[in-house]
C-alpha cells in the first residue's frame, strides 16, 4: 500500500474512533435501535377502539361486537351505549362505531334486509381502510353463522361513512407528517451544530472569557433558530393547504401556538445534544440518532396502536408524536380544546426540561 495513503487512512480511523462517544454512536446505538424497532414496528392495524349501539335484544349485533373484540384486532370502546358516536369519534375516544338500523340489526334482518352503518375516523387513512375490511368480514361471518345463509344471499347492506377524510386522500394523512419532520429537522440540526461549531473553531473559549452569563449565551444561540423555524411555518402551511389541498378546519392561531411550542422544544433538544457533542460530526450523528427513532415512533408511518405497551410509553416522550397529533387534529378535525391543551402542555414541559438540563450542563462547562 502507498505509505502516504496508509498514513491518511490510519489518521482518519484514529480520529473517528478515538472518542468513546463516537464509538458508541457508530456501533452500539444502531444495534439497540434495530432490536427495538424490529420488535415494535408493524404495518398491521391492531387495537382499534370499536363502539356499537347495541340494544339488549339485538343478538346479531352483539355477536358481531363480541367476535370483533375476540379477534384481537379490536378493543372494546366506552361502555355508554347511549353516547353520541360522532362526539366519541371527534373526541378521539373511539376509532370506529357500528350503528344498526332502527329497532336493531336482528329485527331488521328478520324483515329481510338490513342497513348497517359504520362510522370511521379517517385521519389515519391506513387504519380506516383496514377497519372497513375487518368489520365487513366479521359481519359476513356472523350473519352466515346466525342465519345460515351463503355470501350471495347476505341480507346486510353496509353504509360506510368516513369522517374527516371522506375521499381517503393519503395527502391528508402524509402531508401533516412531512410538515412535522420539516419543522423538526431545521431548528434542531442548526441549533445542535451551533455550540459545537464554536467548540471546533476555538471561539468557545472567547465566549467563556467574555463578560456574558451562561443564560445570555444559551438564549443568544437558540432564539435565532426559533425565529427561523417559525418563519417557515406559514410557507409550509401554505404549500400543504393550497398545493396539496389539505383542509384547515381549525384555528390558525391555535396552529401557530402549537408550532411555536414544538419549534421551541426542538431547539431545546438541539441545544441539549450540542452540550454532549464535542464536534460537529458527533452533533450531526446525535441529531440523526434522535430523529430516526423520533420519526418512527411519531405515528407517521406505523400506527402507535400496534406497538407494545413499553414502546407506546416511549412514544409519549417523543415530541414529534404530540405535534403530529396536533397537526392532524387541528387541520382535519378542527382542534378540540382539551386535546390541544394537553399536547401543547406536554411539548412545553419537554422544552422546559431540555432547557433546564442544557443550562445546567452548559453552566458546568463554563465553570
Largest sheet: 5 strands, mixed
What proportion strand?
Answer: 5-15%
Mean pLDDT, rounded to whole units?
79
Rg, Å, rounded: 26 Å
Strand order of the largest sheet: 2-1-3-4-5
How far is it from the N-terminal to the C-terminal residue, by CA? 47 Å
Structural class: alpha/beta
Principal-axis shape: elongated
Please trace the helix and strand order, writing H or E for each element. HHEHEHEHEHEHHHHHHHH
Q: Please provide the count of β strands.
A: 5
Unreliable spans:
none
Helical content class: 55-70%
Number of helices: 14
Description of the molecule:
The structure is a single chain. Helix content is about 65%, strand content about 10%. Strands 2-1-3-4-5 form a five-stranded mixed beta sheet. Helix 6 links the parallel strand 4 and strand 5. Helix 7 packs parallel to helix 10, helix 10 packs parallel to helix 14 and helix 13 packs antiparallel against helix 14.
Compact description:
Helix content is 67%, strand content 8%.
What labels would you give this structure?
alpha/beta; 367 residues; single chain
Topology:
Elements: H1 3-17, H2 20-40, E1 48-52, H3 59-70, E2 74-76, H4 85-90, E3 96-99, H5 105-111, E4 114-121, H6 125-147, E5 156-163, H7 170-201, H8 204-209, H9 214-244, H10 252-276, H11 280-296, H12 309-315, H13 319-333, H14 337-366
Parallel strand pairs: 1-2, 1-3, 4-5
Antiparallel strand pairs: 3-4
Helix pairs in contact: 2-11, 3-6, 7-9, 7-10, 7-11, 7-13, 9-10, 10-13, 10-14, 13-14
Amino acid at each position: 500500500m502507498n505509505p502516504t495513503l496508509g498514513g491518511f487512512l490510519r489518521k482518519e480511523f484514529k480520529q473517528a474512533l478515538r472518542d468513546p462517544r463516537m464509538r458508541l454512536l457508530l456501533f452500539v446505538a444502531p444495534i439497540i435501535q434495530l432490536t427495538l424497532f424490529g420488535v415494535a414496528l408493524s404495518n398491521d392495524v391492531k387495537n382499534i377502539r370499536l363502539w356499537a349501539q347495541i340494544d339488549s335484544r339485538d343478538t346479531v349485533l352483539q355477536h358481531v361486537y363480541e367476535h370483533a373484540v375476540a379477534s384481537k384486532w379490536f378493543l372494546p370502546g366506552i361502555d355508554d351505549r347511549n353516547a353520541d358516536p360522532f362526539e366519541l369519534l371527534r373526541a378521539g375516544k373511539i376509532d370506529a362505531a357500528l350503528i344498526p338500523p332502527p329497532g336493531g340489526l336482528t329485527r331488521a334482518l328478520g324483515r329481510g334486509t338490513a342497513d348497517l352503518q359504520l362510522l370511521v375516523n379517517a385521519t389515519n387513512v391506513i387504519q380506516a381502510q383496514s377497519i372497513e375490511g375487518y368489520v365487513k368480514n366479521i359481519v359476513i361471518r356472523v350473519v352466515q353463522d346466525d342465519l345460515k345463509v351463503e355470501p350471495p344471499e347476505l341480507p346486510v347492506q353496509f353504509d360506510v361513512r368516513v369522517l374527516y377524510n371522506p375521499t381517503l386522500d393519503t395527502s391528508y394523512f402524509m402531508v401533516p407528517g412531512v410538515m412535522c419532520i420539516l419543522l423538526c429537522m431545521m431548528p434542531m440540526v442548526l441549533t445542535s451544530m451551533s455550540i459545537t461549531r464554536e467548540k471546533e473553531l476555538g471561539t468557545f473559549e472567547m465566549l467563556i472569557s467574555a463578560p456574558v452569563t451562561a443564560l445570555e449565551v444559551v438564549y443568544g444561540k437558540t432564539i435565532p433558530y426559533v425565529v427561523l423555524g417559525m418563519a417557515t411555518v406559514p410557507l409550509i402551511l401554505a404549500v400543504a393547504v393550497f398545493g396539496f389541498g389539505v383542509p384547515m378546519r381549525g384555528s390558525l392561531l391555535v396552529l401557530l401556538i402549537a408550532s411555536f411550542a414544538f419549534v421551541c422544544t426542538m431547539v431545546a433538544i438541539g441545544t441539549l445534544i450540542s452540550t454532549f457533542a464535542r464536534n460537529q460530526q458527533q452533533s450531526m450523528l446525535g441529531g440523526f440518532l434522535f430523529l430516526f427513532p423520533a420519526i418512527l415512533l411519531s405515528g407517521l408511518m406505523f400506527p402507535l396502536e400496534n406497538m407494545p405497551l413499553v414502546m407506546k410509553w416511549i412514544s409519549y416522550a417523543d415530541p414529534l408524536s404530540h405535534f403530529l397529533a396536533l397537526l392532524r387534529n387541528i387541520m382535519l378535525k378542527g382542534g378540540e380544546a382539551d386535546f390541544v391543551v394537553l399536547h401543547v402542555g406536554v411539548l412545553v414541559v419537554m422544552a422546559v426540561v431540555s432547557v433546564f438540563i442544557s443550562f445546567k450542563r452548559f453552566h458546568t462547562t463554563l465553570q
